[in-house]
Design goal:
It is a single chain. The chain is of the alpha/beta class. Helix content is about 35%, strand content about 20%. It has 15 helices and 13 strands. The strands form two sheets. It has an eight-stranded mixed beta sheet. Strands 11-10-9-12-13 form a five-stranded mixed beta sheet, with helices on both faces. Helix 2 packs antiparallel against helix 3, helix 6 packs across helix 15 and helix 11 crosses helix 13. The radius of gyration is 21 Å and the shape is globular.
């Protein structure tokens, strides 16, 4: 059985999925796993196609001190115990910069170009590239495909992509990219089967999780995003501030005397829900907390989602539907209810019972703007792009349902 391995690597975890290739280029998920707690409490967990447990193993800290070692442990388990030998590996890479507007086969030259964007996505890019280098070193003949979170947004008009700065900087790559593109691409390709009457219309998708952003879709294409040059912009996130006056950064540098590296670390790790609440970066903990600052953080998050919805609706010149996805969007009925309340001026009306049971459509029958909850599947998109690039050099034009 031919398989494709999908890898999504972070700072302290590496998630992986294995898909079998079936007739007519369809994919079936066979294994879903992750190695987390790297450098602290390493643990390998994996389940099969039906959710049955395949592995749950703890390791000493010294046995899995870093991401390359974790890759080796997970890879050995897949090869030796599960007998998986993939024909290709697909990777999530957060930032493709101005060079890449579609998935690409990886070689050392591609890796060198992607290293230039490490400072633009310091929480993600270095870790995305680590397993790529490992496979290049240990399995140089195994095809690898990089799939970019920025690529889906490259359909923006120039007026949306530019900042009001000298053009030379734009030519160098200082522009509004947008992120979570693999998630939005999946939603865009899934909408025709979920709601064909609005799939080609004006749709706002809210990818709300620890990392959060929103995207305006028109005719299935991204026309505007809340994120820009980096993954700091837009709505507040777990540890990132979202939209912030550049003058705040200048203040930190000049008045507070913070070196640039410290400012970068501060903006990526100490702001957002964590910084505002002083309690946690986890929305679940904030909603359970009685601390007034935790309540402020939740209120701020909901408010900014509503404000950004207005901005995106302006870019679309109207709104035909609203979609929630990602961790908070898919699982928090209370946050969804509060956001839909913010959308009341659009004519959105929540069906409380449907929302409580996490239905696919959570708006009332007479709602002027229908509201949906659609679980995202970035890994499937990566697997599809990887297979398509191997087969014919371009992406599939729709998402296949995974059994």
């Amino acid at each position: 059985m031919d398989t494709i391995l999908v890898i999504n690597a972070g700072s302290s975890s590496v998630k992986f999925q294995v898909y079998s290739i079936e007739g007519e280029g369809k994919l079936r998920r066979q294994i879903k796993g992750q190695m987390d707690g790297i450098g602290s409490r390493p643990r390998l967990r994996a389940t099969g196609a039906g959710g049955d447990p395949l592995a749950d193993r703890a390791y000493p800290i010294e046995a899995v001190p870093d991401l390359p070692t974790a890759m080796g442990v997970a890879g050995e388990w897949l090869r030796e115990e599960i007998q998986v030998t993939p024909i290709a590996v697909g990777h999530r890479v957060v930032h493709g910069g101005p060079d890449y507007d579609r998935p690409v086969l990886i070689d050392h030259g591609v890796v060198a170009r992607l290293e230039r964007f490490v400072t633009l996505a310091p929480l993600h890019q270095p870790h995305n590239l680590t397993p790529i280098r490992s496979v290049l070193t240990n399995y140089p003949g195994l095809p690898q495909v990089a799939c970019f979170d920025t690529a889906f947004h490259r359909t923006h008009d120039p007026v949306a992509d530019h900042y009001a700065i000298p053009h030379q900087l734009y030519a160098e790559g200082v522009r509004r990219y947008g992120f979570h593109g693999l998630s939005y691409e999946y939603i865009s390709r899934t909408l025709p089967s979920v709601a064909p009457d609005i799939a080609k219309g004006r749709v706002i998708v809210a990818h709300l999780g620890s990392g959060a952003s929103m995207c305006a879709l028109k005719d299935g294409r991204s026309v505007e995003s809340t994120m820009g040059f980096t993954a700091l912009d837009g709505v507040p996130m777990g540890t990132r501030p979202g939209q912030i006056d550049p003058g705040v950064v200048l203040y930190l540098l000049t008045e507070k005397g913070m070196p640039p590296a410290k400012v970068q670390d501060f903006l990526y790790r100490d702001c957002g829900l964590k910084g505002l609440s002083g309690v946690s970066n986890d929305m679940r903990e904030l909603q359970e907390s009685t601390d007034p600052k935790a309540k402020l953080a939740v209120d701020h998050f909901v408010y900014r989602v509503g404000v950004n919805a207005g901005m995106l609706a302006a870019a679309l010149q109207g709104l035909d539907a609203f979609v929630f996805t990602a961790g908070i969007g898919e699982n928090s009925a209370s946050i969804r209810a509060r956001v839909v309340e913010q959308l009341g001026w659009f004519g959105a009306r929540l069906d409380a019972a449907e929302n409580a049971r996490h239905a696919q459509k959570i708006s009332q029958a007479g709602s002027a703007v229908p509201v949906y909850v659609i679980p995202t599947d970035e890994e499937l998109m990566i697997a599809q792009h990887t297979l398509a690039l191997l087969m014919n050099g371009h992406s599939h034009n729709r998402a296949e349902k995974v059994s």
